[in-house]
Design a protein that fits this description.
The chain contains no helices and eleven strands. Strands 2, 4, 5, 6, 9, 10 and 11 form a seven-stranded mixed β-sheet that branches. The protein has a four-stranded antiparallel β-sheet with strand order 1-3-8-7, with no helix packed on it. Strand 5 and strand 6 form a beta hairpin. The termini are far apart.
């Protein structure tokens, strides 16, 4: 599975961005997907995850209520809608696929990773 993340960029605090992650090489419609992020000097951290059919979603406390994860299995794509962005959301965002139907919040539980897309929130 190859994952291509896009949609990152520079945005002012309070603004919005929508990230996309398109999978290729095989269908991921039966697999869980997630978003993680890594800020400079920090470990990679969980952001959000979604089950194979989109019926269950999970969020870190830091983004709950501001971010929304969704997926379109017909397009083999997962999305992350980010609203009310804060300076501390600045990071490289990575999408990932887990070879199971149900997601986990640990990066070690994911099997395929995209290359990352930079999100920078400015004041």
């Amino acid at each position: 599975v190859q994952l291509q993340a896009s949609g990152g960029g520079l945005v002012q605090a309070g603004g919005s961005l929508r990230l996309s992650c398109a999978a290729s090489g095989r269908t991921v419609s039966s697999l869980a997907m997630g978003w993680f992020r890594q800020a400079p000097g920090k470990d990679r951290e969980f952001v959000a995850a979604i089950s194979w059919n989109g019926g269950s979603t999970f969020y870190s406390d830091s983004v709950k209520g501001r971010f929304t994860i969704s997926r379109d299995n017909a397009k083999n794509t997962v999305y992350l809608e980010m609203n009310s962005l804060k300076l501390e959301d600045t990071a490289v965002y990575y999408c990932a696929v887990r070879r199971r139907e149900w997601p986990r919040t640990s990066s070690s539980d994911y099997d395929y990773w995209g290359q990352g897309t930079q999100v920078t929130v400015s004041s």
